[in-house]
Amino acid sequence: MAARRAYSSLPAPNTAAAAPSINSAFIPAADLPKPLFRRIASQLAYLRSQGKDPATVSIPNPFLLHRAGQRADVSALTGLERFYWRKPQFSARRQKLLLQQYDPSILPPSPLNPTAEPRPIQWEDGTVINWEGEVLEKAAKQSPYDGRKVMFKGHIDERNKPQKVADRQERMKGMDKRIAAWRKSKADDKIRARPSLPF
């Protein structure tokens, strides 16, 4: 049932609708997938209900995360500012389905479809629509202690390891003398254990 519901909101594959337009400057609204078409139509209807009718409109990219606002507190680990985020309106799974059914050049840029310069969309009445938002690059991997104000406590073996290694090195310095003394004590024990009588 869940799989049927996920597929029901997507249009059936249509090669005629999925083919890119001949005009490379704009993407005609008729070429868009139905879910994107409906979302743009609702955004334009809301703007016009507010008395706005601009020739160019910027709409949040439904495939990306968007920063909603700044939090009052900062991160306890890194000390950096924190923000509220809005999740993508299309999940990664749904984006992948759209990429399989439509030409990637007519879809909004996303981590699954990184486009350097996305083309604007031309609506039926001539309104030009641009996608708002940028594809965030993945941060470089860093060690657990880089850029953190609070260090991890670690396991007890890890905390005791430096002292344990130092004690081991100190004992290894006089190891030859201890081995010689141990061998001499064993030899002395053997001599003392011998019977004094020959029988």
UniProtKB/TrEMBL annotation:
Superkingdom of origin organism = Eukaryota
Residue spans of biased composition, Basic and acidic residues class: 153-192
Positions the record marks as coiled coil are: none
Q: Which Pfam families match?
A: Mitoc_mL59
Give me the Gene Ontology terms describing cellular component. mitochondrial large ribosomal subunit
Entries under InterPro entries matching the protein: Ribosomal_mL59, Ribosomal_mL59_dom
The entry lists its GO molecular-function terms as:
structural constituent of ribosome
List each copy of the Large ribosomal subunit protein mL59 domain by range. 39-184
Return the annotated region ranges for Disordered: 153-199
- Which protein is depicted? Large ribosomal subunit protein mL59 domain-containing protein
